[in-house]
Amino acid sequence: MTIRVRRVAAACALGAALTACGAPSAPHASRPAPSAPTAAVSSRPPTLAPGPAGLTPVFKNGPRVGGKTVALTFDADMTADEGPRAAKGEHFDNPQLISTLRTLKVSATVFMTGRWADEYPAEARAIGRDPQFEIANHSYSHYAFTGDCYGLPTVSPDRMKADVERAYTAFKKAGVPNAMPYFRFPGGCYDRQALKTLSAVGVTAVQWDVVSGDAFATDSDAVAQQVLEGVKPGSVVVMHCTRSAAPATEKAVRMIVPELRKKGYRFVKVSELIGAADRHR
Q1: Does residue 76 contact residue 113 with C-beta atoms inside 8 Å?
Q2: Please, are residues 195 and 217 in contact by the beta-carbon 8 Å criterion?
Q3: What are the pLDDT digits (tens) for 242-266?
Q4: Residue 38 — very low, low, confident or very high, per pLDDT cuts 50/70/90?
């Protein structure tokens, strides 16, 4: 592994380069997803309180004290215009990765685009109904919520809220029972306007503090090393659940998990880290 390879891999992950540019598909009307289940208050997923001026809160990592926990997160990316590529045989899913996580008994959070759920409804439903996992929102279209975000096409401010809500609608259509009130900005790009616009949706924005560098990486050893060097207690690791554009991820996970367990780490979902962060405020 060279320094150049690791830097390029990190840039790819941060740039969410798992997308193809194209004209946005026509928006569909949708109803807002509830920010939490309508059952008893104690059953609601933990969220962070709104930021100053009511802005959408942003979560990057959990507490650094109180135990060695780490959240592996996987972005299931597919843009609104990549249907033709899927029809020609390109795989935007990664069932082997999900199978490996199940075998290793690793809890994880999947940040899924609505377009991915539309393309792979059976897989979305299986992940969403498995208590080992939780599904969170990664937008419908995987278009950027700011300008100049690694070359991604953009969503206009007046369509941002609808794009997030449309993803929740896609999850429900696929049979996902309880998608979490967490949102990851495509490319990790956001500004005050985006945080203000999404405040009405009631989500907590989830970033990360460890970049795996798995996007377009072919060296699983390099991906594993980058994660192992970066993880601290409470870390959120960003990886991808896309065979065609992150082919080394599944093998890297098989190396990462036992090494972190040797160091005393416990794998948790993002919801557990957010709950711990809220208690430490």
Answers
A1: yes
A2: no
A3: 999 999 999 999 999 999 999 999 9
A4: very low
Q: State the Cα–Cα distance between residues 14 and 8, nearest whole angstrom.
A: 10
Model pLDDT for residues 123-171, shown as the tens digit of each residue:
999 999 999 999 999 999 999 999 999 999 999 999 999 999 999 999 9
Q: CB–CB of 6/222 below 8 Å?
A: yes
- Mapped onto helix, strand or coil, the DSSP state of residue 72 is strand
Number of CB atoms found within 10 A of residue 54's CB = 12
Residue 27 and residue 146 in contact, taking contact as beta carbons nearer than 8 Å: no
Residue 113: name the closest of 144, 85, 84, 90 by CA.
144
Backbone angles phi, psi at 128, to 5 degrees: -65, -25
Report pLDDT for 17. Answer: 40
H helices of 88-156, in order, are 95-103, 114-119, 121-128
Q: Which residue has the tokens 């926990």?
A: 69
* Amino acid in the structure at residue 233: P
- The residue with tokens 């999947």 is 110
